[in-house]
Task: structure prediction
Amino acid sequence: MKDSGHAKRRNKARPIWVLASASPRRQAILDRLGLRFHVDPSGIQEPGRRPHETPVAYALRVAGLKAQEAAKKHKAGLILSADTIVVLGNRILLKPESRVEARRMIESLSGRWHEVITGICLWDSSAGRAWNATSRTRVHFRRLSPAEIEWYLRTGEYRDKAGAYGVQGYASLFIDRLEGCYFNVVGFPIAVFEKLCRKSGNPLLRALTVG
Result:
């Protein structure tokens, strides 16, 4: 009986974490933090943007949909989902469906500022409650030549990345200014996540494996 009670207290202190994302970058960030979690991508088809929907609202809505889908399979624990978009003006640049589309995106970003927005949803399946937050970072690409753009496309890095680039990879050669959270551009703003955990009553420091 004592062992059973101890296990219950331990489970309460360390809830099950589920990452509803297939992103290897998000997984790597959580791994480095020492968070023990299960990976179970929601698999939803990302919806189109609604008329008059702001980029922030869109990112939050998609993150929420991912968490809700994952919650259908996980009736207990904390589900973490996120959606990262690249915004140029009022235009949302999602993941390119082809090399041609990726070229258009990189050409449009060349020599200009754009914004990276990540919506995060933390869903408590046991309580049926959700907490949401966003992170916004401004990024500037230097002016790129056609040869440089073609070189980047040959790397294949544009695949499966919002805005057709990864800040942690070859595209770092093109970014000369960044204002805000670097990890947000990677796809997972750690500081915002930590704040969301405290707000939900699940302090992240308590969940991390240290030592």
